[in-house]
């Protein structure tokens, strides 16, 4: 095996999951804290109509993505993973965010890899297209869909995804744990392949 195919979400997975809060607090005149974000859908957290959130995102979305900060150890671990495996950035961002996303990845000096902006949270078909072995994700509903489709999912812990872990899903707290899980999974695949060869 020459390496795993690893699909990686961006928002909340590579980026700090609550880095949008300061802009939202100022815009909506509220005082949200990270621990208040117990749901993925931000309009529900803010208790506002979805249309009001969409207006905010239309005006401030690019700035939110431009200002996004990286999770601790994500930079170092992504480069280590990239050295041994094939990585793909797979995000639900819309196509109009392509330029700002590419610029951000370059600015943060993250590994250059293929980028897919799906405009949808449904990622199963893209995982299939890419021959995905491991998908790193923060949205519980995405993780559930992917795991039910047979993919190994590493669900990185956030206040908004603390629901029961289902078969195929592994909760990880940080990027160091992600690296350990990927190494463990890769070793298991190699061992299984060797055992099949012996048989």
Description of the structure:
The chain is an alpha/beta fold and 199 residues long. The protein is globular. The protein is built from eight helices and six strands, in the order E-H-H-H-H-E-H-E-H-E-H-E-E-H. The chain has helices spanning 21-28, 42-46, 50-67, 74-84, 98-107, 124-129, 140-148, 175-198, and strands spanning 5-8, 86-91, 114-117, 134-137, 152-156, 169-172. Helix content is 46%, strand content 14%. The mean pLDDT is 94. The protein starts with a strand and ends with a helix. It folds into two domains: 5-16 and 71-198, Rossmann fold (3-Layer(aba) Sandwich); 21-67, no CATH class.
Tell me the series of helices and strands, N- to C-terminal.
EHHHHEHEHEHEEH
Instruction: Specify the biggest β-sheet.
Output: 6 strands, parallel
Distance N to C terminus:
18 Å
Which overall shape is indicated by the principal axes computed on the Cα atoms? globular
Derived from helix and strand composition plus strand pairing, the structural class reads: alpha/beta
What is the helix fraction of residues, given as a range?
40-55%
Q: Assign the CATH class of the largest domain.
A: Alpha Beta
CATH architecture of the largest domain: 3-Layer(aba) Sandwich
Spatial strand order of the main sheet: 3-2-1-4-5-6
Integer tally of domains? 2
């Amino acid at each position: 095996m020459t390496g795993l195919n690893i699909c990686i979400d961006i928002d909340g997975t590579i980026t700090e999951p609550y880095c949008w809060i300061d802009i939202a607090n100022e815009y909506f005149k509220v005082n949200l804290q990270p621990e208040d974000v117990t749901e993925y859908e931000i309009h529900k957290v803010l208790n506002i109509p979805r249309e009001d959130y969409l207006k905010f995102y239309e005006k401030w979305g690019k700035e939110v993505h431009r200002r996004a900060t990286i999770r601790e150890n994500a930079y170092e671990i992504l480069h280590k993973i990239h050295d041994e495996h094939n990585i793909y950035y797979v995000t639900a961002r819309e196509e109009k965010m392509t330029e700002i996303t590419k610029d951000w990845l370059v600015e943060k000096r993250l590994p250059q890899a293929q980028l897919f902006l799906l405009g949808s949270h449904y990622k199963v078909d893209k995982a299939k297209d890419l021959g995905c072995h491991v998908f790193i994700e923060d949205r519980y509903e995405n993780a559930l869909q992917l795991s039910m489709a047979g993919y190994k999912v590493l669900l990185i812990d956030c206040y908004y995804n603390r629901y029961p872990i289902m078969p195929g899903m592994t909760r990880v707290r940080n990027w160091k744990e992600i690296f350990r899980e990927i190494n463990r999974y890769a070793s298991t695949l190699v061992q299984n392949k060797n055992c099949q060869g012996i048989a």
